[in-house]
Specification:
Layout: E1 2-5, E2 11-15, E3 18-22, E4 42-44, H1 50-53, E5 63-66, H2 68-77, E6 83-85, E7 91-94, E8 97-103, E9 122-127, E10 141-144, H3 153-162, E11 166-170, H4 179-189, E12 193-197, H5 209-219, E13 224-225, E14 232-235
Parallel strand pairs: 3-4, 4-5, 5-6, 10-11, 11-12, 12-13
Antiparallel strand pairs: 1-2, 1-14, 2-3, 7-8, 8-9, 9-10
């Protein structure tokens, strides 16, 4: 499983022969990539704020997944032709990937407007095997938390049952978790690898990533913190024991 961070909350996840893109927003200071250069069979949308859907229309040929409210909005306003609405707790099979929608605690005004709601915001757990209650040591699993605050479902559901090997967590504070809450999330999730995201895009979310690294260490977590450069790829398959 290959993970590429395009800044903010935008990730490309390659699972086998399947290309997933999460929260397409390329107008951020961490990336030099033109969206036209990115392959996407499926686009996962965590919520409807502009900094997560702004480039959705650049991927009209892809299949979109999100809450029914967000998919309806993208269909009407971004001319998306192929979309699947799902909701929290559900799992869909997308090519070689299994994608589970999980809780995120955040707001969800469409295009950052406050007159219409996109339903519940979400995160996604992506795996190359179908999630069950029985632990699967052959799986490789990545958790994209979306925009969220700290919540106990990370500890009580996502960690023990979906068993992510790695997590991308928002750390920019102000609109989401900051470094200390994201560090607690890292510890609760029991992941081996964690990637900070959703920071340095706008003045209110500018941070020092060293603060996050220090806070993770303070929890006693053994997770390795990977502060990626924009457009950098990390091969999760190289570091997961199967």
């Amino acid at each position: 499983m290959q993970l590429t961070w395009y800044g903010h909350s935008t990730w490309h996840v390659e699972v086998g022969e399947t290309d997933l893109l999460i929260d397409p927003f390329f107008d951020n200071p961490k990336t030099d990539t033109d969206p036209e250069e990115v392959d996407a069979d499926h686009v996962l949308v965590t919520h409807g704020h502009a900094d997560h859907i702004a480039d959705a229309d650049r991927f009209r040929g892809a299949h979109f997944v999100g809450t029914p409210e967000v998919i309806e909005y993208l269909t009407e306003h971004y001319d998306i032709e192929d979309g699947t609405g799902m909701n929290l707790g559900g799992t869909v099979e997308l090519g070689d990937a299994y994608v589970s929608m999980v809780r995120a605690d955040h707001s969800n005004g469409l295009d950052t407007g406050y007159g219409a709601s996109g339903g519940m915001p979400a995160g996604y757990v992506i795996s190359n095997t179908k999630p069950t209650q029985v632990a699967d040591e052959e799986s490789t699993t990545f958790y994209h938390a979306g925009d969220t605050s700290l919540h106990t479902e990370m500890r009580d559901v996502i960690a023990p049952y979906l068993e992510p090997d790695a997590a991308a967590l928002p750390v920019g504070d102000h609109f989401t978790m900051g470094p200390w809450q994201a560090a607690v999330a890292t510890d609760w999730l029991s992941v081996d690898h964690v990637f900070p995201m959703h920071y340095d895009t706008f003045p209110p979310i500018e941070i020092e990533t060293e603060d996050f690294e220090r806070e993770v260490k303070a929890t006693g977590s053994s997770a390795e913190v990977h502060v990626l450069d924009g457009d950098e790829t990390f091969d999760l398959g190289d570091v997961v024991d199967v």
